[in-house]
Automatic annotation (TrEMBL):
Keywords: ATP-binding, Helicase, Hydrolase, Nucleotide-binding. A motif (Q motif) lies at residues 1-29. One of its GO terms (cellular component) is cytosol. Residues 1-29 form the DEAD-box RNA helicase Q domain. Coiled coil: none annotated. It comes from Nibribacter ruber. The keyword Transmembrane helix does not apply. Residues 230-378 form the Helicase C-terminal domain. GO terms for molecular function: ATP binding; hydrolase activity; nucleic acid binding; RNA helicase activity. Residues 32-207 form the Helicase ATP-binding domain. This is DEAD/DEAH box helicase.
Amino acid sequence: MKFDDYSINPAIKKALDKLDFKKPTDIQFKAIPPILKGEDVLAIAQTGTGKTAAFAIPVLHKLHERKQYAREDGIKCLVMVPTRELAIQITEVFQTLGKHTRVKTFSVFGGVEQGPQIAKLEDGIDILVATPGRMFDLVSQGYIRLERVEILILDEADHMLDLGFIRDIRDLMKFLPRKRQTLFFSATINEHIKDLAYSLVSKPIRIQVSPKDPVAKNVDHSVAYVGMDDKRFFLERVVQENAGSKILVFVRTKVRAERVHEAMKRVGIVTETLHGDKDQKERLTSLNRFKKGDVKVLVATDVSSRGIDIPSVEYVVNYDLPEVPENYVHRVGRTGRGTHKGKSVSFCSPEEKPILDEIEKFLGKPIKVLEIAKDDYSATIDFSSEAKPDVMALMREHEAKLDSMKKAPKVSNANKKKKKK
Ligand code: AMP
């Protein structure tokens, strides 16, 4: 089935066409019809499956087709997300897909000034994408009114629970009309998530996408056994062998992110870093430089791994293995998005083997091993540009020795001459 065959408004089809989205992804195929019908939906789907468009397309259609349209009515659809990055990204999807509609989407999130957000809210908007903290500030100050909300979407609900937003979500429910459509999206499911989901939705249509293999089929992912201190040489090699590709590198900590950045700088590779020590503005700048392709390598921590949609990342490198096994799925899910193909490699040092075992248990199968022959391993280190300055230094040392050897007789002759005088 193609998007052409759907009864969705031509204004949205035009945007889909521009994006070159021809066929729905699995989650879109399953979710769009019930959402259009007004059903509640409970969907288990990871980022990368096309889940944003799975709710954006039908919601835009419904709001655009409303007969009596009055913007003063207030916010019609509220999308709750765990992070600012995700808020920005989802807003972009709504704005791109809704470009030819009269639906207005806006996002509010913390870390930036409140004033401009309030001014925009007063203009009147239809869809609000929000992170819980800033949203509650604005609701309690009376800048956001939610009594006209018809559709509530919770995206990455599992991540919202991880971040401790459960109370905020429950408090928020008091401001929303009881009669509404609720769409609940989560990458994983457990008892807590089920509890939350069933307290919000009513008689939902349940949708699950590729439950058996949490890593999308179009991602070729493997693991390479690499010593902790040798990882930088292998990253250098991946970058060189994939020149021109966008590479997303995941590390365990902020400190390591900066260290990798420095190590790459030493060998002439420019990288950007994305981690919690950077303020909102710096994070957005880094992300945008990477998105635009000004910088091809982005070194990030897990904080930034969830929900970020960076178009066409060809390669994901797990420089360090993630300590939470399901983060492997989220990280690797940054590539091979939609219908694209992607590649990923994880560097596993001997001390990380137990973490790898946990990840494989979570995936329900082993990860393909990228065998590195001994010669190849040492060549990777020997051919590193980092090694080159040492070679140069050795050569200089050698030349200096030769020089001094050449000069030595002259000196002694001179000395002899001096002595004669
Ligand atoms: P998401 O899971 O919403 O983060 O989307 C993952 C990626 O898939 C995004 O980069 C979208 O642009 C892309 N995408 C979504 N739907 C489609 C589609 N029907 N065809 C091709 N690409 C898509």
